[in-house]
Amino acid sequence: YASNIATDPNVLKERTAEEQIRLMEALNNCDYNKYASNIATDPNVLEKRTTKEQIQLMKVFKNCDYNKYAYRIAIRANVLKKRTAEEQIKLMEKLKNCKYNGYAYYIVVDSEVLKERTAAEQIRLMEAFKNCDYNENACRIIFDVIVLEKRTTEEQIKLIETFKNCNYNENAYYIAVDPEVLERRTIEEQIRLMEELKTCEDNEEVYEQSKTQQEEPLEVRHSENIQNIETLEEMKNYIACLMEQKGKDADIEGNTLVYKYQPNREENK
Question: Is residue 113 within 8 Å of residue 146, measured between CB atoms?
Fold first, then answer.
């Protein structure tokens, strides 16, 4: 393997003789592990990382008990492209703390997660996943493309924690990832639905209700409510509702989400 570092055309092209020697010394310190050798000669790593960074990756790999998942983080092209060497190292160390769980590894390398989340956010998701006893559905909440697009990392973690508090109930999981729920519900509403589900013995029925209720969203834009108002009396009632909901000094604009206002016109006839 030391010979490969000295003769590999990719290494020769990208590294000076002094750098090659340092890579060979690092390989010696890694007990000539074949994966450590691959880190030294992989074209993706050579292109994206300096010799110093390659050596750091090899050291961390050794500290990670030469785990194959840690190795893959070190050479994975999409990780190299999106993350600095320092971030890669943090992710490898976090994976070690997660006992090299396969799903935790995928949080690090999944292209959708990489696209939507920073390294720090990925680490927090891995910690939340670990706290959920590596539950498979908790992991799916992290990976779900629609959840990634619609929810921040903080909101995803809240969903995962609530799911754990619901004893990993299958229906609570579906509330967390259902596209219709995500589209029409705030994070607070999602969590309330999941918690409500926990308190009900017939939670299947509550889950179905949470889906059918979506035909009428609980919150709409302020401008939509204004368009629906026809009389001065309705406007006065609406303003009173707003003050009660948001407070007297709230700064409300057209895009502000508020409770849907439905004037009782039958009563006024």
Answer: no
Q: What angle do CA 220, 225, 231 make, to 5 degrees?
A: 165
Q: Dihedral sign, CA of 117, 81, 91, 72?
A: positive
Phi and psi for 221 in degrees, rounded to 5? -70, 145
Answer for the pair 149, 113: CB distance below 8 angstroms, yes or no: no
- Residues 109/44, Cβ–Cβ less than 8 Å: no
User: Which of 112, 121, 46 lies closest to 57, judged by CA?
Assistant: 46
Q: Are 153 and 123 in contact (CB under 8 A)?
A: no
- Whether residue 58 contacts residue 89, with contact meaning beta carbons closer than 8 Å, is answered with no
> What tokens does 35 get?
């994966």
What residues form DSSP beta bridges with 259?
A: 219
In degrees rounded to 5, what are phi and psi of residue 258?
-135, 170
**Residue with tokens 């390989």, as numbered in its chain:** 27
E-assigned strands of 68-202?
A: none
pLDDT 10s digit of each residue in the chain, 269 long? 999 999 999 999 999 999 999 999 999 999 999 999 999 999 999 999 999 999 999 999 999 999 999 999 999 999 999 999 999 999 999 999 999 999 999 999 999 999 999 999 999 999 999 999 999 999 999 999 999 999 999 999 999 999 999 999 998 999 999 988 898 889 999 999 898 888 776 567 666 666 555 444 456 778 888 878 888 888 888 888 887 777 777 778 777 878 777 776 655 54
Retrieve residue 138's tokens. Answer: 């908790």
Q: Are 21 and 51 in contact (CB under 8 A)?
A: no
The whole-model pTM stands at 0.73
64 in helix, strand or coil?
coil
